[in-house]
Structure formats: C-alpha cells, structure tokens
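Friendly challenge for the regulars: who can give me the structure tokens for this chain first? No prize, just bragging rights.
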Amino acid sequence: MTALPGRQWSAQAPAGAPDGLPSPGRFAHLHPDDGACLMEAAALLASGRFTDSPAGTHPALAALARVVNDGVGDGARLALWPLAADLADAYPSGRGYAPLLVGTVVDAARVVRPSSRSLARYDRACRRRAGRVTHTSTGGAVARICDLLWWRGPGRRHLEHALRVLCAAPDAEERLSGLLRRAVAQAREDPDERASGREMSRNRQA
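First reply, four minutes later:
Bragging rights claimed.
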C-alpha cells in the first residue's frame, strides 16, 4: 500500500502493513506524532481522522482490538499492525454479530478458567441473545436502540470480564493475538455470509 498523502509518520512497519502510519504504541494518543494504537491506525486509514472508534469498525470488534493492542508486548503489537487495514472496514451488518463475537471471547476465557460460573452464565446469555436477533431485521429505530443498550450494558460487561481473564493468563499474548486475528478474519468474510448471521467458529471447552 502507498503512504497516506501528506503524512510524514514512520512506523518501520512489518511486511504487509500500510506505509506511512504512526509508530504502534499502547493506549490512546493525543496526536499521531506520539504514536497510535491499532484502532487509531485503522481510523487514519479509513478516513484520515485520529480516533480509536472509527465508524467503519464494529464497536465490539474495536473494543476487542483496543484491549489486545494494550495487552500485548511491543513485538506482538508490531506483528498485529497489518490488521489495521482490515479493521478499517470491518462492520458486519447482522444483529447477531456482537453477541456472537462477545460469546467467542467468553468461550476463549472459559478455556483459561473453565470452572467460572460467571463466564458460563455470560456464555449462555450471549447464545440466547444471538439466537433471538440473528435472523431479525437490522432496520428500525427499536432494533438499533435495543442493540445499542445491549452493547453498552451487558455486552460490554461480558466482554470486559472475559478479556480480564485472558489478560491474566500465562500465555496471554499468544491467546489475545490469535483471538484478534480470528475475529478480524471472520468480520471480513463475504458480506452476504456476515449478514446471514452465520455463527462464528467458537473454541469452546466445556
């Protein structure tokens, strides 16, 4: 890919990463000269705006990417940098996407902590939510409001709890990096397949 027009930043990015992005770093940044997190890099590629919540990335996927960016070391973060281009345009349209993604992260956490009753409860809640909304219309104010309330309430809480478990695992870096790579690949599937609400592959351990 060519460098962003008018940008002078240099990340010494790995092969496959877009040229001209700021240097990868942890947490949010005030200006690209100070570096960028993975989602800030995705936003620059998508629109040139410097934000960690670009419109072209599903909020649940963006939340996952921000935690992974901050939770891995410099080497792993640099290896994930090529994902910025895919994250810039990763917004599955189906209503079931968010609960399925959160459920996938919960399942990954249950592998680390299989006896957790909270994680088991969150897993069931995500499955129920996905089952209710997967084949329903994405249009309409009521549907949008319901989805927003779920994401800003239980959906976000379930995701954050599961990610805390994963971040505390001895091999957290490997688990987090693999989880984000799979999530991005699944979000970038054929739009017709995404809209149909086909369930994401889940690494579940009872």
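Residues 1-13, 190-206 have pLDDT under 50 and may be disordered. The chain has nine helices and no strands. Your move, everyone else.
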